[in-house]
Design goal:
By secondary structure, this protein is an alpha/beta fold. Helices cover 34% and strands 17% of the residues. Helix 6 links the parallel strand 4 and strand 5.
Length: 324
């Protein structure tokens, strides 16, 4: 059952809640894909890199210790996805979990998704709770066999508090799985990123650079700090520090690069053009390959990662002292 808000959120938190309460507009307009990860070719490529070409759930299960019983497990999902093909639904359909708790800061989003999963007959398995990860502790009344998150941690300021809570809440043989943006904070892309994206835009045809308003994108998406904060005060607030705290507090088992360093700023506001016809799809495949080659060659880092970690007994008593 979805927990109700008991107090009025502060103005900054309220802005974040409003930003993510409507899933149909959180990544742009309803009728045109503006965000790069909404493209099916990108999703297939990311899935390939996340699990080294294997089924993602089977790949994750390989990291559970030998002998662990993979049934009636407890799962915590940090961040609510919307729709009928979410990660939580996929996890529930495996039959391995007796209970899945989905948490998010946006209660309207939770209610909308709860209606979907309840209608799908998952009312007894998937549950929901409002949680502000900057102020609320990760629930640890029961140890979690799996804590999963996708695209949520880069919105959290108190990373030390969060990762300490994750480490405390994980079962001794549990797994933490994170698909996340770990690139420049506040989306302040590096000069190399901007230069490479601009050079690519120079040679792309206008047909794939036309934005929803009819204008042609000719320069890299490069929002100012003020624009980012005005749109979403939580956006990539300390994204560049996420991996540092994950490695410092948890026991990381693997961390796979999934790209996005060029594709994210390049495809911003024009992503939908790359699904218009066979030619545009092939062009997207070429861009995906180019980015992968540059990352594998060490020319650019990967702004997105897929990480699997487990509980760290040695680090569970760290003070988690926070930086100012």
């Amino acid at each position: 059952m979805l927990e109700k808000m008991t107090s009025t959120p502060p103005p900054e938190e309220d802005k974040v809640i409003r930003k993510w309460s409507d899933p149909s507009t959180a990544y742009g307009s309803k009728d045109f894909k503006e965000y790069w990860e909404l493209l099916s070719q990108v999703q297939k490529h990311e899935a390939l890199l996340m699990a080294e070409g294997q089924d993602i759930i089977r790949y994750v299960c390989r990291f559970f210790p030998p002998g662990k019983i993979l049934s009636q497990m407890n799962c915590l999902v940090i961040g609510c996805e919307f729709g009928t093909s979410t990660s939580a639904i996929a996890l529930a359909q495996t039959g391995m979990f007796g209970s899945i708790l989905i948490t998010d800061i946006a209660p309207d989003l939770l209610q909308q998704q709860q209606a979907i999963t309840d209608q799908a007959g998952m009312k007894d398995i998937i549950h929901y709770a409002k949680l502000n990860l900057n102020t609320d502790e990760i629930p640890h009344r029961i140890p979690w066999d799996l804590i999963f998150t996708s695209g949520t941690i880069h919105h959290i300021d108190r990373l030390e508090f969060l990762f300490q809570g994750i480490n405390r809440a994980l079962a001794q043989d549990g797994l933490f799985v994170m698909k996340e943006y770990v690139g420049p904070a506040r989306l302040q892309f590096t000069p190399r990123q901007v230069s490479l994206v601009n050079r690519i835009l120079d040679v792309l045809p206008d047909s794939v650079k036309t934005q929803r308003d009819g204008s042609v994108k000719r320069t890299c998406f490069q929002p100012s700090l003020a624009e980012i904060v005005a749109n979403d005060p939580s956006e990539a607030i300390r994204s560049h520090e996420i991996l540092d705290y994950a490695y410092r507090i948890l026991k990381v088992l693997t961390c796979n690069n999934t790209g996005g360093t060029l594709l994210h700023p390049l495809l911003h506001a024009i992503a939908g053009n790359f699904e218009q016809n066979e030619c545009s799809v092939h062009l997207l495949q070429l861009l995906i390959l180019m980015e992968q080659i540059l990352i594998e060659g060490g020319v650019i880092p990967s702004d997105y990662i897929f990480l699997i970690a487990t509980h760290s007994k040695e680090r569970e008593n760290l003070s988690g002292r926070e930086q100012p």
